[in-house]
Amino acid sequence: MSLPRPHRHDLLIAAAGLACGLLLWSFGLYNKVDHVVGQRWAVLIPLVVMATMEALRRTAPRTALVVGTLAIVGDQFTHGNLVTVLMFTDVVYAAVVYGPPASARRIPYTTALITIGVTVGFLVWWQNAIALLVGVVTGMGTFLPAVTGAIVRNHRQAAEAARLRAEQTALLAEMDRSQAVVAERARMARELHDMVANHLSAIAIHSTAALSLDDPGTTRQALTVIRENSVEGLAEMRRLIGLLRDSSGDAEPAAAPTLDGLEALLAQARTNGTSSGLNLVLDDAREGNGGRLPAPVELAAYRIVQESLTNALKHAAPGEVRVALDGRPDGPLTVCVTSPLGGRPAPRAPGAGAGLVGMRERAALLGGEFEAGPVPDGDGGELWRVRAVLPVGTSDRGSST
Does residue 47 contact residue 22 with C-beta atoms inside 8 Å? Predict the structure, then answer.
């Protein structure tokens, strides 16, 4: 198994250490006088081995520590070289900083035991204070670098953990921002559809009638309705543009419609559907219906009724369109709009069907229920029913402005 390629900085450290060691050797500067191996060249063997291990201090820290330990032991049998000892302390330090977590935890304890063992052993052997000095030198060469490496490693891990937390916080903030942008775009899409689509639908229906009927009176009446809806749609569009340009951050338009405006909404629908044969009826069966509901609930109910009437004008067969409101002061508000189910054709624009999606979203945002589809009318026919149940918090009642 081949060893990994040494790091560039480690090669520089190894080369510098080897050069300094050779310089001391050339001048005959040694660590001690007594020795076992008397040949002068014997000092170079531990020096070269230790310099080689310095090159592997980062890429193979455990191998460098094991071989370096053998080299420093061998150096004790020669005249000794100070640079060999200094490089060994760096190898111990690197083994803790760059080695596996298990080795990083064990090395400080192991070097502490070695320091204690050397001190006690020499005290028993020599029985003088010089043994304590040997213990101190051993600790400085083994235990102190290991402890320093442990401290550096802990600081690096803490810094990395802080960096990861900062990245996670930034990621969560970006996700929150993206979700807020998506939610705001969906809200603007609902407002745009609900405020303008009914006027455009009325324009499309009456322009079709004006083009298909060769009757000056009918054409004039249709053009009148087209002009009224064009003016109202333009006003609504300007209000929406003003809302988008406003930087105050209001969650809803300042003049959000309420249930008090349902009579006016039905009156406008009657004007737009004069030629459709529809009879629009409002049935408000709420208990204490004079009280105000929370603004989000009233806005959602108003928009659901508005979109349902727009769909009825486009698709319903002649007959009764009933808007029913029901609810108690301590219960949810139920909005139900029924219309005769018919196959009357109507102009379709790109994005048709978005009204049902918008109504469903409005109910879901309040934690309510929404359903739309055909139901039997009791006389063998079918009605198209839109039904929404909107929760009303008692603590929010009367807090709208």
Answer: yes
Q: How far apart are CA 27 and CA 5, in angstroms?
A: 33
Strand ranges (E), 220-277: none
In contact, 267 and 301? CB cutoff 8 Å: no
Angle at 347 between CA 343 and CA 351, to 5 degrees: 105
For 363-385, the three-class secondary structure string (H helix, E strand, C coil) is: HHHCCCEEEEEEEECCCCCEEEE
Rg (CA), the chain: 43
CATH 3.30.565.10, the chain: domain bounds: 171-390
Q: pLDDT by residue for the chain (401 residues), tens digit each? A: 566 788 899 999 999 999 999 999 998 888 776 666 778 889 999 999 999 999 999 999 999 999 999 999 999 888 889 999 999 999 999 999 999 999 999 999 999 999 999 999 989 988 888 889 989 999 999 999 999 999 999 999 999 999 999 999 988 888 888 888 888 777 777 766 666 666 666 676 667 666 666 667 667 776 777 777 677 777 777 766 766 666 554 444 445 678 888 888 888 888 776 667 788 888 888 866 556 788 888 888 988 998 888 888 878 888 889 999 988 777 889 999 999 886 554 444 444 566 788 888 888 888 899 999 898 877 777 889 999 999 986 434 444 33
* pTM, rounded to two decimals: 0.54
Q: Cβ neighbours of residue 10 under 8 Å, at least 6 residues apart?
A: 54, 55, 56, 57, 58, 59
Query: 222 with 209: CB under 8 angstroms?
Result: yes
Buried b (16+ CB within 10 A) or exposed e, 264-292: ebbebbbebbeebebebeeeeebeeeeee
Could you identify the residue written with the tokens 């929760």?
A: 391
Q: State how far the Cα of 319 lies from the Cα of 37, in Å rounded to an integer.
A: 117
Q: How far apart are CA 96 and CA 142, in angstroms?
A: 11
CA distances from 173 to 24, 164, 305 (A): 59, 14, 37
292 vs 258: CA distance, rounded Å: 9
SS (H, E, C) 166-178: HHHHHHHHHHHHH
Cα separation, 16 vs 83, whole angstroms: 10
- Contact indicator for 388, 304 with CB cutoff of 8 Å: yes
CB 278 within 8 A of CB 321: yes
CATH fourth-level superfamily of 171-390:
Histidine kinase-like ATPase, C-terminal domain (3.30.565.10)
* Angle of CA points 133, 145, 42, to nearest 5°: 70
